[in-house]
Write a structure and sequence with these properties.
By secondary structure, the chain is mainly alpha-helical. It has 37 helices and 11 strands. The strands form 2 sheets. The chain has a 9-stranded parallel sheet. α9 packs across α15 (about 400-410), α11 packs across α13 (about 375-390) and α13 (about 375-390) runs antiparallel to α15. The longest helix has about 35 residues, at about 695-725. The two termini are about 40 Å apart. Belongs to the PEPCase type 1 family.
């Protein structure tokens, strides 16, 4: 009882915040829409809550009937009301997470799991000291990479208001007078009213320029503030002496945690991305960064009012002040301020040169621009050294230390922009270049596309050693070839302008052969990014060519391709000299899941990682895995902390990049405090996975693979047959999918610049993995996160695999041991459990009614329903408990949320039925209000489920 009471007490602040925001929303709705609309919404809410709590089918039918009676503008009002309530509940959830994390952080005796403090303590217990952590960080790379994949359905306008509401909730936690509390609540009411009166949907499709600006808003609100703070916290943990009041702050840490981006450089399947968008992305990133630097230096100038009448300063600082050009008599005794006048002027001149804009907020003296970030760092270090030498260390820790670290991390570029393109585009571009250049092969004009793989590899390697170019300024090439060369040339220009960290990687989607990688090398040579093979290679020369292995067959042959790649002498030389001994490999979660299903995707990824570790270890090359994770579990979602710790030993080793996509960016990073925690989780998990008891972990992993690998392979094969049997081999499945999910309506929602499908038509093969998973989430099936698992576990229990325990009881004991002791399998089941907890077969059955053909509907939904029941039963058998019984907080939160998501599902089904009926009737006029209401429900359901894209 005490535990239950304690849990109830800990949940009370969250319930209080949700009740407060819900009450404010109700007040706004009644005022703006009138009592009739308010009563309609409230009646639906009460019916849905009663239905969820009591499970009475009569309440479900009543909810359905009341939704069907909604007419005119009422569906829009209802959709907006429930959607905004879920938005507000998310804000309250995030604040509650912050509250809990702060409470754990205050408890010195029990640091929060996933915190930096906990990671350093854990490593200490394993005999890993500070010196070893520092050695790892010196060459480490931890990089979240923001992408513009289209599952973020919220507008920036609403996200900005969300931040203000979150700030208001935080202020309410402090001791307040009645007047202050009244003022805060009035402010919150105004913010909620602003939300209600702000258009929730975009009327036009996002452009790449919009996506760039949206991403940059997270730098302003989160990354530019939080990342230097995180470095500072870690530095203090690794430098105990710095905790003394007047101890000199340690120098900035080597930049191991940086930010990456695909926005503006990811051309794969997006015709709207080209050289111009890459140039814009780099320009806008630099602009935001220099605005931040100038603001911080301006603030420093106000803060560092230290006078030489009271305290001494270093000669180097005096020289910097004298060189500043500031001759104001008011600052004659304030050398720090004078020095910063010069720093500010040089920064403003640098911004003018790099961005072509005057970003200075005040007039400046004439000064030369900084040529490199290192020059700016040197000036800041001069100021810091003087402060430290003359009792000013506490002053330097206020703002200067963070700015110093920011310059180390962000340079003059802010974030690394990756290039990405499909291998077949590279192939066609090179084929045209060879043909138009008149290259001969075996005495005849070269037909590159007709060559076999060995011939291609030989030709490409020979071309890499050639000094003469293939492309000619006198020849007009096709649009695709011209675009590819222009992008690479823009990358070269961007690196020269903003620094080599501005563009570091070029990712090859659909890598299937060694020649796919060599083709990009030749194209880089044509664009002037790299010199011909055989010449001296400077550090960070050219772009690292990163293969992306996506489908199940691609993952299976990935290790062989990388072995062949690293065995080429010219590539080994480039890896050693230009890439600091590291080579990156990207693994795709989305397409492998869409290709082979949940279990097979995860198992194929796991085996590919182990095989890659062996290949790289044998060649003494550092492996950096780039995980193409999405928001939903079917696309690699789930806890990033647990996912990193569950990686095979040797696959992290201080090197990890991972994509942050769609609504996950908003969920993790819209708020500085929440964003700080998620970044800390990434760093802490990387440290633990890289350093904690590697020998023991490797030994345990080898034992798991030896004892349980055959069982996983057996289940993977069964799960893949089950999944592909439904999705690709069942006649009419595509018709069912397009009818029983809102995929067609999602395609019309203006949530991204990338098309939902690679080709026109209704083929599952052509549909992108992101809208594929997003559609299943909308109808509450989330098929991509569990389908096939039930059959796989059941088949293993019934028949087993070679070398499996002979009895069913023995095989069940083995699977339970795997679920308990093997991190990879435990994390797999945990993610699947969360998906199943969010699924609702009764609601999915109502979506199935949208399929007109009864036989098709019953056949396919029957198969889905049977597998769903089988998977639930098998999961409960392995875990020996009900869903989420070990996480009652999440269980209670989901139960409350479902009462607000359910009406949106019911409404979406009804509106889709009306809309599609009107589309089929040539005499009917399409009601734009119905279309908007459908899109509003999509927004709300996505907000309620949170990780659906």
């Amino acid at each position: 009882m005490n535990a239950m009471r304690q849990q109830s007490d800990s949940a009370e602040p969250l319930r209080h915040d949700i009740r407060l925001l819900g009450r404010l929303l109700g007040t706004v709705i009644e005022e703006c829409e009138g009592k009739r609309v308010f009563d309609t919404i409230e009646t639906l809410r009460r019916t849905a809550v009663k239905f969820r709590r009591e499970g009475n089918d009569a309440d479900g039918k009543l909810l359905e009937q009341r939704v069907k009676r909604l007419q005119d503008s009422d569906p829009n009002s209802v959709a907006r009301a429930f959607s905004y309530f879920l938005h507000l509940a998310n804000i309250a959830d995030d604040r509650d997470q912050n509250r809990r994390q702060r409470a754990r952080a205050i408890a010195d005796d029990a640091p929060a799991r996933g915190s930096l403090r906990e990671a350093v303590q854990t490593l200490g217990r394993h005999g890993v000291g500070v010196a070893r952590i520092r050695r790892l960080l010196a060459d480490a790379c931890v990089m979240p990479v923001l992408t513009a994949h289209p599952t973020e359905v919220q507008r920036k306008s609403t996200l900005d208001v969300h931040r203000e509401i979150a700030a208001g909730l935080t202020q309410r936690e402090g001791p307040l007078t009645p007047e202050e509390l009244a003022d805060l609540d009035a402010s919150l009411l105004g913010r909620v009213a602003t939300l209600w009166q702000t258009r929730m949907l975009r009327y036009t499709r996002l452009t790449v320029a919009d996506e760039i600006e949206n991403a940059l808003s997270y730098y302003r609100s989160t990354f530019l503030q939080v990342i230097p703070r995180l470095y500072g916290d870690l530095s203090r943990l690794l430098n105990r002496e710095s905790a003394k009041p007047f101890a000199a702050p340690p120098p900035p840490l080597e930049p191991f945690l940086r930010m990456g981006s695909w926005i503006g450089g990811d051309r794969d399947g997006n015709p709207n991305v080209d050289a111009g968008t890459l140039e814009r992305a780099l320009l806008r990133q630099a602009t935001v960064l220099f605005e931040h630097y100038l603001q911080e230096v301006h603030a420093l100038g106000a803060e560092l009012s230290i006078t030489t009448l009271l305290i001494a300063v270093d000669a180097e600082l005096l020289a910097l002040a004298e060189a500043s050009g500031d001759d104001s008599p008011h600052r004659r005794d304030e050398p720090y301020r004078r020095a910063l006048v010069g720093v500010y002027a040089r920064l403003a001149a640098t911004a003018q040169r790099l961005t072509g804009q005057d970003l200075a907020r005040r007039s400046t003296v004439a000064a030369p621009p900084y040529d490199t970030p290192q020059e700016l760092s040197a000036d800041l270090a001069t100021i810091a050294a003087s402060l430290a030498a003359h009792h000013g260390s506490p002053i330097g820790k206020l703002r200067l230390a963070g700015l110093q670290q920011a310059v180390e991390v962000f340079g003059f570029h802010l974030a690394t922009v990756d290039l990405r393109q499909s291998s077949d585009v590279h192939e066609r571009a090179l084929a045209e270049l060879f043909s138009r250049a008149g290259v001969q092969h075996a005495g005849k004009p070269l037909d590159y596309l007709a060559l076999d793989e060995d011939e291609r590899v030989a030709l490409l390697r020979a071309e890499l050693s050639q000094a003469r170019p293939l492309a000619s300024p006198w020849i007009a090439y096709s649009e695709d070839t011209t675009r590819e060369l222009a992008v690479l040339r823009a990358a070269a220009a961007g690196r020269a302008r903003y620094g080599k960290q501005a563009v570091r990687q070029t990712i090859v989607s659909h890598t299937e052969t060694l020649s796919d990688l060599l083709e990009v090398m030749v194209l880089q040579k044509e664009a002037g990014l790299i010199a011909p093979a055989g010449q001296d290679i400077p550090p960070e020369d050219g772009l690292m060519v990163v293969p992306l292995f996506e489908t199940i067959p691609d993952l299976q042959r990935g290790a062989d391709i990388m072995a062949a790649w690293l065995d080429l002498p010219e590539i080994r030389q480039r890896v050693k000299q230009a890439q600091n001994g590291a080579q990156e490999v990207m693994l795709g979660y989305s397409d492998s899941n869409k290709d082979g299903g949940f279990l097979t995707s995860n198992w194929s990824l796991y085996q590919a990682e182990r095989a890659l570790v062996d290949v790289f270890s044998a060649r003494h090359v550092r492996l950096r895995l780039f995980h193409g994770r999405g928001g939903s579990v079917g696309r690699g979602g789930g806890s990033s902390f647990d996912a990193i710790l569950a990686q095979p030993p040797g696959t992290v080793a201080g090197q990890i990049r991972l994509t942050e996509q769609g609504e996950v960016i908003q969920s993790k990073y819209k708020d500085a405090e929440v964003g700080r925690w998620h970044l800390e989780l990434l760093v802490a998990a990387t440290l633990e996975s890289s350093l904690a008891a590697r020998a023991e972990a490797t030994s345990a992993e080898d034992a798991h693979m030896a004892h349980h690998g055959p069982a996983m392979s057996f289940m993977s094969d069964t799960a893949q047959r089950t999944y592909r049997g439904l999705v690709y081999d069942t006649p009419g499945f595509a018709d069912y999918f397009f009818a029983a999910t809102p995929i067609s309506e999602i395609a019309g929602l203006n949530i991204g610049s990338r098309p939902a499908s690679r080709k026109k038509g209704q083929r599952i093969e052509d549909l992108r993995a992101i809208p594929w998973g997003f559609s299943w989430a909308q109808c509450r099936l989330m098929l991509t996160g569990w389908y096939g698992m039930g059959s796989a576990i059941e088949a293993y229990l019934e028949t087993g695999a070679p070398d499996a325990p002979r009895s069913r009881r023995g095989r069940l004991a083995q699977l339970r041991e795997m679920a308990r002791d093997w991190p990879a399998f435990r994390t797999l089941l945990s993610n699947m459990e969360m998906v199943l907890a969010k699924s609702d077969l009764a609601i999915a059955a109502r979506y199935a009614q949208l399929v007109q053909q009864r036989g098709l509907r019953e056949r396919i939904f029957g198969a889905i329903s049977a597998e769903h029941g089988r998977t639930l039963a098998m999961l409960k058998l392995l875990t020996q408990r009900e869903l989420l019984a070990d996480n009652p907080t999440l269980q209670a939160s989901l139960r409350e949320r479902f009462a607000y998501i359910d009406p949106l599902n019911y409404l979406q089904i009804e509106l889709i039925r009306r809309h599609r009926a009107a589309q089929k009737n040539p005499r009917a006029e399409i009601d734009k209000r119905v279309q908007r209401a459908i899109h509003l429900t999509i927004n709300g359901i996505a907000a309620g489920l949170r990780n659906s894209g």
